């Protein structure tokens, strides 16, 4: 059985020159970071939730979050469970009083978009961090990342999801 380590969501970055969004997770109490390339819609959904910005009309993850709450389920945690051929795998762990736990397979980007809305913990299998984690030893790197994230947040304030256009997907957007 795998060991799962708690992580925090550092934020969303844009990888240049491809302009591909990357979600960055950081091991709590450690220096390893896990980059996960995601689609622009999921990047927008996560960034808006991290900033506490509510769109005028609910996005897909907002809608699903509301359905979860209306059905009296609790999203206990999101678990990034594996990495195979460049594709990450995750699970949503739901609880409901008086019922057996429910585990649903999901893409990490969708799962974390829900976790940001519902306050669920996010964990990553230790073997995934061992395989794909990046060790950042210099704290100034983290400060630079925070500045880059702030610039991205400012960018998000000025854009509309339609600005991303239809059909633009990174080869690994199925992550």
Automatic annotation (TrEMBL):
InterPro entries xref list: BFN_sf (IPR036104), Bi_nuclease_dom (IPR003729)
Domain BFN: residue ranges: 4-136
Pfam families: BFN_dom
GO molecular function: nuclease activity
Protein name, as recorded: BFN domain-containing protein
Natural source organism: hydrothermal vent metagenome
Phylogenetic placement of the source organism: unclassified sequences, metagenomes, ecological metagenomes
């Amino acid at each position: 059985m795998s060991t799962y380590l708690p992580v925090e969501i550092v934020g969303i970055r844009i990888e240049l020159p491809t302009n591909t969004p990357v979600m960055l997770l950081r091991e709590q109490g450690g220096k390893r970071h896990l980059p996960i390339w995601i689609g622009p819609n999921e990047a927008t959904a996560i960034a808006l939730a991290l900033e506490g910005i509510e769109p005028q009309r609910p996005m897909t993850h907002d809608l699903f979050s509301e359905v979860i709450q209306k059905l009296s389920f609790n999203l206990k945690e999101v678990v990034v469970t594996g990495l195979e051929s460049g594709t990450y795998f995750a699970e949503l762990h739901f609880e409901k009083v008086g019922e057996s736990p429910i585990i649903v397979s999901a893409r990490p980007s969708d799962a974390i978009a829900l976790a940001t809305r519902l306050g669920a913990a996010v964990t990553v299998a230790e073997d995934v961090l061992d395989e794909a984690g990046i060790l950042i030893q210099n704290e100034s790197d983290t400060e630079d990342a925070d500045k880059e994230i702030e610039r991205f947040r400012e960018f998000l304030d000025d854009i509309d999801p339609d600005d991303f256009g239809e059909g633009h997907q990174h080869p690994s957007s199925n992550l």
